[in-house]
What does this fold into?
Amino acid sequence: MTLFRPYKAGTALGGRYVVERPLGAGSYSVAYLCFDRAEGRRVVVRHDRPGRLLARLKAGALSPREEAELLGRLNHPRIPRVYGLFRDRGRLHLVLEFKEGVNLEDALAEGRIALDERQSLEWLKDFAQVVRHLHERGVVHRDIRPPNIILEPSPASDAAPAQAFPYGVAHLVDFGLACPIADRPTRPPLCAKLRRGGAAEEMFFRRERHPRADLYAMGHLLLFLLYSGYEPPEGDPGNLAPRGWEEELRLSERTKRLLRRLLRRDEPYGTVSDLERDLEAAIAALGKPDASDD
It folds into this structure.
């Protein structure tokens, strides 16, 4: 068993990067916030977690070099840029742009976000352009989750009105499980076929080497957003048998259909563009009652 000791604050790496603090240790890699003395900026430095090579290969997670090559295909202001690779202490390290802000998971857990149906759809529509950028360049992220979305404070200007949400601009990070889109569809394992809605099925849906994986994850992301503004009915004791989202959330029929397709309970979306069209239609439909009330 390999003993792993994270770098301490103040550790110098590669002759120029000084560790400020750990950012997190995932299943296959470890990330640190560092100061780049040569460029005078903060960066993210990441390396493989020792002793996890076989597990990483089995999961299809990328090595630092593979991640750098894949991110090199992308050029979007809401995706981290690659600054370089270096070797230190026998490990290959990846240097990435640091996206400053709070991750969506913490913002939701702390109750800092409360969106209604329309706001949730608008948020997802804005975020969808980032995912579409990946897919158009042959890349699927495969790990779109609240902790991998950084909310950067919105600039105090009207330069990007589509991104001007009060909670910040959403950036997509952590491409360790990303991969090129497969030429052929992946066949689900037998356990995923036998247990619809089980953990094996969900893992297959999330890890498929196809845009459907990211679209499925965006369905769960939309549920997180919708529940951020959910308040139980008055008088609900809260100890009843758990109900599904279709019973708990009061949503328009367009939004329900859209969610069912994202979650692959109905015919799944094939592309982000298809989703964006339905998001636009659902948002427009929600706006009609307000217009008639004026």
Remarks:
- The first strand starts at residue 12 and ends at 13.
- The domain at 15-97 is CATH 3.30.200.20 (Phosphorylase Kinase; domain 1).
- The mean pLDDT is 85.
- The radius of gyration is 21 Å.
